[in-house]
Design brief:
The complex is a heterodimer of chains A (234) and B (348). Chain A is an alpha/beta fold and 234 residues long. Chain A has helices spanning 40-48, 70-76, 93-100, 107-120, 122-126, 137-149, 167-182, 194-200, 218-223, 225-232, and strands spanning 2-11, 14-24, 29-34, 55-60, 63-64, 78-81, 155-159, 186-191, 203-208, 211-217. In chain A, strand 9 and strand 10 form a beta hairpin. In chain B, the strands form two sheets. A two-stranded antiparallel ribbon of chain B has the order 1-2. A two-stranded antiparallel ribbon of chain B has the order 3-4. The chains are: A alpha/beta (234), B mainly alpha (348).
Chain lengths: 234, 348
């Protein structure tokens, strides 16, 4: 479904990603793990078109999207859930969801999707007219995920979905990611919480200094001694 | 609904003013304040809704004033030794239209060159742009008469010649003209802000990386906002030119930009009514002091103190502060405005 080949991304002269190649098959949940500065977030940005790559090729469903605009990539079906501040704080919950389908114009489908998400996350329905900045961290994360789903994506890129959340919310977030995948949406996830990510993933890539150093199924990597030592702290 | 009635009541009140305001001097103050409010509303579109500070906004205002004057007066300039470019005088309404379009084009140009790198760079580009245009207006004697100023600028007439014509000369007609243009500007900005493009502006002000990740073309939206903002500022400048009927390079002074910024910030940036309230306060306040025979130095000091007090105690501006006191159903303005305690966090 998604093929990244020989990707190079630079910030000025500094290469954040060097010759990185990954593939993702339809319906898979693939994680990218690694330390800070390994190039995980940069890779996601390159895939979603926010950061134009310096070299390499990105192909999504047979179409070369290496130089495509962020809008085009979103229209093709790749939604990006960026890290950090996840919502538009002074817009209401509903307006946040509306921003998620900024490029869609089918009013009927939009309200249908919104009703479905409200049914799935009742807490968002209760607070639909509340400013998103007043929600708790976990609620904001649900909103961010819902917003990404509003574009009816085929592939969702999650950047650090567990960052800064309380432990029980982290668990809930991973459950939601799993549910999304069970509904047939392909997921690529970047995660610091390597243990949880590997348990959840079909496959994973370990990134170091902008390169893939290891890859395999989630299980294989969990059992790999070097991964255990470097990322799992055992 | 309540909002609509309130706005209509407001407009009705403003229409009634010339009927009971006998002192023409106060009408003059209101006209000039009104022109500045139009300029401040245009600045608010950039500063309040997209979060970009244009510190050279007076450039668009002055360009509007000069272009409208020159087109209505006509000009003849020598570009090359044997080439002259000349223009015969055109009707004022046409000149004003040209002024709006020309200012909009300048906005497009500034937007294109500066929004690749936003924030501080945009501020610098706009300040420099305003200074460059000021120097051009000062030194291109042949076109602008430099410090001698453009005089005898014609006033606006509307209608069919020799059948029915309205001449916008004198205080009362000009007052209504400015009022009509102000309402027009308000409606344009309101519609823009409530449109998809307006949502996109607010989204990128609140969280730019997120906005681009949901498919907002950030540069395009910012350039659009700058074009509309510059065009409306140019319209305000054109109104000014045909009201005072003399334009000199001082229309480009930095202090006018500062005045607009003060109006927007104290009134409440990112609210539709903010620049109007801020403009009324800071346009009329100095005159009130004058009415009490306060010395000019004291007037300016009071002006400064008032400004500091407002910014200190009402950091989001007057309009959001009033809103927070009203019951919620009254304030559903739908203008994407920031809540009262919001600004501090929004900056972080």
């Amino acid at each position: 479904m998604l093929e990244v080949e020989g990707l190079v991304c630079r910030y000025g002269k500094v290469a954040a990603v060097q010759d990185l190649s990954i593939t993702v098959a339809r319906g898979e949940l693939v994680s990218l793990i690694g330390t800070n500065g390994a190039g995980k977030t940069t890779t996601l940005k390159a895939i979603s078109g926010i950061l134009p790559p310096a070299a390499g090729r990105i192909v999504f469903e047979g179409e070369d999207i290496t130089r495509a605009s962020a809008r085009r990539i979103l229209q093709l079906g790749i939604a990006h859930c960026p890290e950090g501040r996840r919502v538009f704080p002074y817009m209401t919950v509903r307006e946040n969801l509306e921003m998620g389908c900024f490029l869609r114009s089918d009013a009927a489908g939009i309200s249908e999707d919104m009703d479905r998400l409200f049914a799935r996350f009742p807490v968002l329905a209760e607070r639909r007219d509340q400013a998103a900045g007043t929600l708790s961290g976990g609620e904001q994360q649900m909103l961010a995920i819902s917003r990404a789903l509003m574009s009816r994506p085929k592939l969702v890129l999650f950047d650090e979905p567990s960052l800064g959340l309380a432990p029980n919310i982290v668990e809930r977030t991973f459950e939601i990611v799993k549910e999304i995948r069970e509904q047939g949406v392909t997921v690529v996830m970047v995660e610091q919480n390597a243990f949880a990510a590997l348990e959840l993933s079909d496959r994973a890539y370990v990134l170091e200094q902008g390169r893939v150093t290891l890859s395999g199924t989630g299980r294989q990597l969990l059992d790999d001694p070097s991964v255990q030592q470097a990322y799992l702290g055992t | 609904m309540t909002n609509r009635i309130l706005s209509l009541a407001w407009v009705a009140f403003l229409i009634s003013i010339p009927f009971w305001m006998e002192d023409l001097y106060y009408l003059h103050v209101l006209i000039v304040t009104g022109i500045f409010i139009i300029a401040a509303m245009s600045l608010n579109l950039l500063l309040g809704y997209t979060g970009q500070l244009s510190l050279g906004h007076v450039a668009f205002f002055g360009i509007g004033a000069y272009v409208s004057s020159l087109v209505s007066l006509g000009f003849e300039i020598h570009v090359l030794p044997n080439t002259t470019v000349s223009l015969d005088p055109k009707p004022v309404w046409f000149a004003m239209l040209v002024a709006v379009i020309f200012s909009g084009l300048c906005g497009w140009f500034i937007g294109r060159v500066s929004f690749k790198v936003r924030g501080a760079y945009f501020v610098i580009v706009t300040v420099s742009f305003a200074e460059v245009v000021r120097l051009v207006s000062l030194n291109w004697m042949e076109l602008t008469q430099g410090p001698m100023a453009l005089n005898n600028i014609p006033y606006l007439t509307l209608g069919i010649p020799e059948v029915f014509e309205v001449e916008f000369i004198g205080k009362v007609p000009c007052y209504y003209l400015v009022l009509a243009v102000a309402v027009f500007t308000y409606v344009v900005i309101r519609r823009l802000v409530q449109s998809r493009a307006g949502r996109a502006m607010i989204a990128l002000r609140e969280n730019e990386p997120l906005a681009s990740s949901v498919g907002v073309d950030v540069t395009r939206v910012l350039v659009l906002a700058t074009i509309v903002s510059a065009g409306l500022a140019g319209l305000a400048g054109a109104l000014y030119a045909h009201y005072v009927r003399i334009v000199d390079p001082d229309v480009f002074l930095f202090i006018y930009t500062v005045t607009m910024v003060i109006m927007v910030i104290t009134g409440g940036k990112g609210t539709l009514a903010g620049p109007i309230v801020g403009g009324l306060v800071f346009g009329i306040f100095p005159e009130v002091l004058r009415g009490f025979q306060v010395q000019p130095e004291i007037q300016w000091i009071t002006y400064g103190v008032l400004m500091i007090l407002i910014v200190y105690f009402l950091p989001a501006g007057i309009v959001p502060a009033i809103r927070s006191l009203l019951p919620r159903r009254l304030v559903e303005g739908g203008d994407g405005s920031v809540e009262p305690n919001a600004t501090a966090e929004a900056r972080s």
